[in-house]
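Extended Data, panel c. Modelled sequence:
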Amino acid sequence: MRNLGGKISERLAKLTLVAAAFVVLAGNALTSADAASRIKDIADFEGIRENQLIGYGLVVGLNGTGDSLNNSPFTQQSLQAMLERLGVNTRNIALNTNTVAAVMVTANLPPFSTQGTRIDVNVSALGDADSLQGGTLLVTPLVGADGEVYAIAQGSVAIGGFSAQADAASVVRGVPTAGRIANGGLVERELEFQLASLTTLRLALRNPDLTTARRVALSINELIGMPTAEPLDPATVRLDLPRQYDGNIVDLLTDIEQLIVEPDLAARIVIDENSGIIVMGQDVKVSMVAVAQGNLTVTIAESPQVSQPLPFANGQTAVVPRSEVAVDEDGTKLAIVPETVTLKQLVDGLNALGIGPRDMISILQAIKAAGALQADIEVL
């Protein structure tokens, strides 16, 4: 019984070690999988993109919140031109209405949009209108960069803010001079792009990197089974269409965009000095360095006193100034940051000094100037 019990204990110990090793391997695999992304999420295919459209139009039906025609002559000219097209002559008539507003209309034309497709449009006031609430956009042509009309916009404007005003007070929430028309644009012209006739295609990485471009090319070549993809630069991967996919490039792109690739990015710290925001990448490393941070505070307090003369002394009441000046220097700590610490350790070490984001920006820039920070600092 003793020998049998010892064998069972030994087997249980081995099973425990195997289970622990499996957990470690699974954790490593999970970490690697979490860091990987689909090619669809890190790259764009050449030619498959949106196109920006813009137009100028009029919004009518406003409840006294439109443009004042005296301050917005373009609104008056547009209103007169529109009425003339409808058979109403107003050239020699002084218009005085505040129910009309001149607006700029913008939209994005999705790739491969066909005639009759509906798209969303954005409407923004151009003059001195107070609000576009309750307004209706009249027919507005939307043109592309080549000057051709690709869509027509019209519909009721929905805004995300409001404004209310009384004789002695007013309140504004959001932006009442900008709105959106859901499905307010109608595509009238298609972009001529024959995807199926391409023999060579290029992939554009959203975050250019040499290592990522090479990994994308290797992953595509492994899928196809032959060297058809080649990285041209950190942002571009060229793909020659294989023979088995002649005339059916959609199947090839569908298979490629589902491939899993682990992107590799350079260590970088992004700093926004206006808002005090600091964003650090995962691969930021710091060599051994000592950091000291101190604040010098000068406090000045004024406590004037009134000097009152004695009765029948023929004196005058005077104010005697009394000032107190105090100097206090806090945070005179010297902290040592170990070599090659992780991002979490770096943040914890800087937070241990009791400093805020503003001082942390200066410390990071000083560490970079000392040559102890292995990362690029980008200031917005």
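The chain has a mean pLDDT of 77. This feature is highlighted in the accompanying rendering.
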